[in-house]
Design brief:
single chain, alpha/beta, Rossmann fold, 10 helices, 28% strand, binds NADP nicotinamide-adenine-dinucleotide phosphate
């Protein structure tokens, strides 16, 4: 608990002789890195990258000790930045926070004001972290498809659909009037995906094995969160002039594809990054999320956990066993 001495709880990753160890600790405000805005965190969220970080994989945590947690939302406690004052409700995603800078799995954080976004009307810190990095990324993927000229009514496939980015992408696309198919390895999540608005469920196996350089034209567009062979097959099955927004590597980081979809079908592969996305674009994305989603969407998208549950959940998220979003109550 935060107390009068300025101490508070944080999940801390430290280096020991046995390797990286992650445990809840009590630290003080003086321990936080120097920056212009201090935030009382109300919620964080648990992402695939946080799972990698807690397990010490993929060099996500660049220095130790480190407070992991790549996103958070809460209330400004103190600020020397002219754009923020105590009481402002803010959200932070990306910028290397929880990787190279102490992050969101703590009751307090000190960060650069330029990394923060003021919450748009209609979004509380809780809403913001039900969405979190995943929600922002899903919105940026939809933006990318729209900038390519793909319009409501088009047929879109979402891969890794029952995960964080995937489930929000399904909900957003469905609310915007697209015809959404959800590719999943978990048939048990069919009811969840249909509640989110998926009209069709596509079994992951259909696209998991090496396929032909060009498959029958099936999709106007795609949001891909998994990469690898599945992304290659999705590209091969995308219609003339279609586009695939690629943001993830939950299956693999490689892309065993040919150039045929690009040079024979005019298919575009659109890269999407949320971590260093410029401020104006992310502000617009947060405002759009607030606009498109309704209160009942938030209830179905997330389960809520505490800081102490995270080390246990790391294995589950990396094995693809977590449904939708995981909201972390601080
Ligand atoms: N570019 C960016 O800025 C950005 C931002 C956020 C996330 N990401 C990346 O996007 C990906 C998804 O993130 P997330 O937070 O949504 O993760 P998540 O909640 O763990 O969801 C990933 C989903 O991928 C599917 N999946 C897992 N393992 C798989 C495998 N071996 N083969 C095929 N599908 C598999 C599962 O969905 P089903 O069970 O439905 O198949 C799983 O739920 C991650 O790679 C993450 O690093 C990138």
């Amino acid at each position: 608990m935060k107390n009068e001495n300025g101490t508070f709880r944080a999940l801390m990753a430290r280096k020991t002789e046995a390797g990286q160890v992650v445990a809840l600790e009590t630290i003080s405000e003086a321990d936080l890195p120097e920056a212009d805005v201090t935030v009382d965190i109300e919620y964080s969220s648990f992402n695939y990258k946080d799972g990698l970080a807690l397990k010490g994989r993929n060099r996500i945590l660049r220095t130790l000790p480190m407070v992991p947690g790549i996103d958070f939302a809460g209330t400004v406690r103190s600020s020397t930045n002219p754009h923020f004052k105590p009481g402002d409700k803010v959200v932070l995603t990306g910028w290397g926070v929880g990787e190279t800078w102490w992050g969101g799995f703590a009751e307090r954080a000190r960060v650069k004001g330029e990394w923060l976004v003021k919450l748009p009307a209609g979004l509380t810190p809780r809403h913001a972290m039900i969405l979190g990095t995943a929600g922002l990324t899903a919105m940026l993927c939809v933006d990318a498809l729209e900038r390519h000229g793909i319009k409501p009514g088009a047929e879109i496939i979402v891969t890794g659909a029952a995960g964080g980015v995937g489930s929000i992408a399904v909900r957003l696309l469905s609310r915007l009037g697209y015809r959404v198919s959800a590719l999943t390895g978990r048939q048990s999540e069919e009811a969840f995906l249909k509640t989110l608005g998926a009209q069709e469920i596509v079994a992951r196996d259909l696209y998991a094995a090496p396929g032909k350089p060009l498959l029958g034209e099936r999709w106007d567009g795609a949001v891909d969160t998994v990469g690898g062979q599945i992304l290659a097959n999705v590209l091969a099955a995308t219609r003339y002039d279609g586009a695939v927004a690629a943001c993830g590597l939950a299956a693999a980081a490689d892309l065993p594809a040919t150039v045929f979809p690009f040079i024979l079908r005019n298919v575009a592969l659109l890269g999407v990054d949320s971590v260093y996305c410029p401020h104006e674009r992310r502000l617009r994305a947060w405002m759009r999320l607030a606009d498109i989603l309704e209160e009942r969407d938030f209830a179905v998208l997330a389960q809520e956990v505490g800081l102490e549950d995270l080390p246990r959940l790391a294995d589950d998220i990396l094995a693809g066993r977590v449904r939708g979003r995981t909201l972390v109550r601080i």
